[in-house]
Amino acid sequence: AQSVTQLDSQVPVFEEAPVELRCNYSSSVSVYLFWYVQYPNQGLQLLLKYLSGSTLVESINGFEAEFNKSQTSFHLRKPSVHISDTAEYFCAVSVMGDDKIIFGKGTRLHILP
Amino acid sequence: KAGVTQTPRYLIKTRGQQVTLSCSPISGHRSVSWYQQTPGQGLQFLFEYFSETQRNKGNFPGRFSGRQFSNSRSEMNVSTLELGDSALYLCASSPGQRIDEQFFGPGTRLTVL
Q: In this model, does residue A1 exceed pLDDT 90?
């Protein structure tokens, strides 16, 4: 069965500094990978996804993630964070052809002024 | 288009009671999935309905049940509530069978006393 590990439960970072949120998955078959963001008191929003093709995927607000099959990772990065990026970020995996998504436990991103 | 709506947003119940939560998907979406979110376990998949049929089920006891109506609206029911059922219950809808297009509602926060 597939699983997702987010190694850091919380990540503090200064405003305008770069950040990386780590995500590793385990699966013996091909997968789809996702990053979702949850702002306080809201539901989840899809940030970006990897389905196939280019291993580097980008979101409209400056985040990017790279699918690394050999390391089974899908780390999320942003070169310069803003206070509005304060949220919880969830990595998720779905096996191709399956209809459910398995989520990691989330990483809370704290932006320090 | 209106987003996914969930009612009620907040609910307080006592142990042993039952509860019904409602989810209205985005217009035209035929798939509805339910998730339980808790600080300790993170996001866990409950079940998924497509065209009134349950297609997938997570690893939850039989006290958790759901259904989907012909207009794609979905309800989930939890009987004989336990303290551990306190959680944020999230509903997500998608147009069809593709798991990469899920849109989440704001959730229903259930507190069991």
A: no
As a whole number, mean pLDDT of residues B90-98 equals: 85
Closest A-chain CA to B90: A43
Across the interface, whether the CB atoms of A106 and B100 are under 8 A apart is answered no
C-alpha angle with apex A23: A55 to A36, nearest 5 degrees?
Answer: 80
Counting one residue from chain A and one from chain B, the pairs whose CB atoms sit within 8 A come to 54
Phi, psi of A6 (to 5 degrees): -105, 110
The arrangement of strands across the sheet holding B5-7 comes to: B5-7, B19-24, B74-78, B64-68
Taking CB atoms and an 8 Å cutoff, what residues of chain A touch B42? 90, 103-106
In chain A, what percentage of residues exceed pLDDT 70? Answer: 98
CB B67 within 8 A of CB B11: no
List residues bridging with B21 in a β-sheet.
B76
pLDDT at A13 over 80: yes
Of A41, A49, A104, the CB nearest to B42: A104
* Chain A residue numbers touching B45 (CB-CB < 8 A): 100-102
Q: Who among A43, A98, A105 is closest to B90 (CB)?
A: A43
Per-residue pLDDT of B17-72, as tens digits, reads: 999 999 999 999 999 999 999 988 889 999 999 999 998 899 999 999 999 999 99
